[in-house]
Structures are given as structure tokens and as C-alpha cells.
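Working notes for the structural subgroup meeting. M.R. asked for a predicted model of this chain before we commit to crystallization trials. I am recording the input and output together here so anyone reviewing the notebook later can reproduce the run.

Input as submitted:
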Amino acid sequence: MQSASLEIRDHLSSQIRSGKLGINDRLPSERELVEQFNSTRITVRDALSKLESEGLIYRSNRRGWFVTPSRLEYDPSSRVNFYMLAEQQNKEPNTELVSKRCIKGPAKAREVLQVKDNEKLVELVRLRSLDDRPVLYEIIYLSAARFPGIEKKDLEASLTTLMQDDYNVAITYEDNRIRVSAVYDQVAESLSHINGAPCLGVERIRYEGDRVPVEYDQEFWVHSAIELRAFCIS
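Returned structure, recorded in C-alpha cell form:
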């Protein structure tokens, strides 16, 4: 006999796959689902969590649950910036600068960027959205000496373009390490996730010229918002 949680999940999944619930449509509230299925809030939440883990729905803090839109296709071997990638796929991108500060920074970032003991790092924290849905939380480290005054620039625009136009830095190479990870605390809250929710973690090192490191990033992607697609030439 099928559990109540699976019955609710299957019902909502069928409505989504048939198109009765369309992209970004709001699901019935937890209270409405409890009444509709004569169930409990715990059972309903379990069903919704299953659908979320499958990438069919997403939550928005204080607004409820919604049907997940199509994923952003992303080729990690390419250097197309976030805005260009989103616009190519008919999505509306946005970036919010969460914080900026000049600090000593973590040992990993200092090691990667090869900064001297007396040098500071610029730390930028940004939240990026597609069609008003937060999908990416990123922490960026730059050498303050290599990018003097960058904290006074428009940091919600493309950082790649800013580097090129204001600092004559052209990114020539990237090293991306991608793994399944989890989000906690401020990252989870910013992405409307619960603590420990799965995400796609990207550790990125960007280089100029002859492999000179200029940027170290930690990215946390909502797993249902992105699809990795690599093109190989034989």
C-alpha cells in the first residue's frame, strides 16, 4: 500500500508533468494540501521535500512552493558570463551585492592568489537570480593590490567586463572543480533552502595571461536551477 506522502507527491508530480501546474505556478498551501488529502502537515512537508529533491518544485521564503522553471544550461569549459548565458536562454538575470570588505582572507584564497603576507584580499559576496528566483550564492576573492579601488566600482554588473575595462585583465584560463555539496546558515537562507540542503558546489580559479591567478571563487548553485552540459569535439 502506497504511503500518504507518496500519494501526495505523485498527485502533484502528475499535475506538473501534465501541465496543469505550469512553470512558476504556486502550489496549494500546506494547509490546503492537509485538508485536500485529509493528512498531516508533517506528511505534506515530506511530500513537498521529495518533489524539491527531484527538482520539480522550489520554495520561496514566506511565499510558498512553486513549479521549477527550465534549468540554466551551463558548460563549465566555456567562459561566457552569467548575464550573457542567461539572456541567451531567455532568462532575466540579476545580481545583488550582499557584502564587500577588505580582509586578510582564508588561507586557501591567499595560497591560490599568491598574495604576500602584508597584502589584503577583497572579498565580495553576491546573490544571483534568474527570473527573480535566487539560484547562486558566490564568494569571490581578489588581490586588493591587483585591483585597487575595486570595492568602489559597480559590483553587481559583470565582474569579467569590469576587470577587462578598468584593469586591463583578460581572463584566459579557468580551473573549475565541481562537486555535490550542501548549504548552511546564511547561504541556505539566501537561497530559500533549509540547512543541509544539497547544492552544486563550484570552486573556481581564474587566470590572466600565462596562468597568473587573479580570482578565487566559491559558488553554491541551487541544484534544480542548473544543468551541466559539455560539448566535446572528437
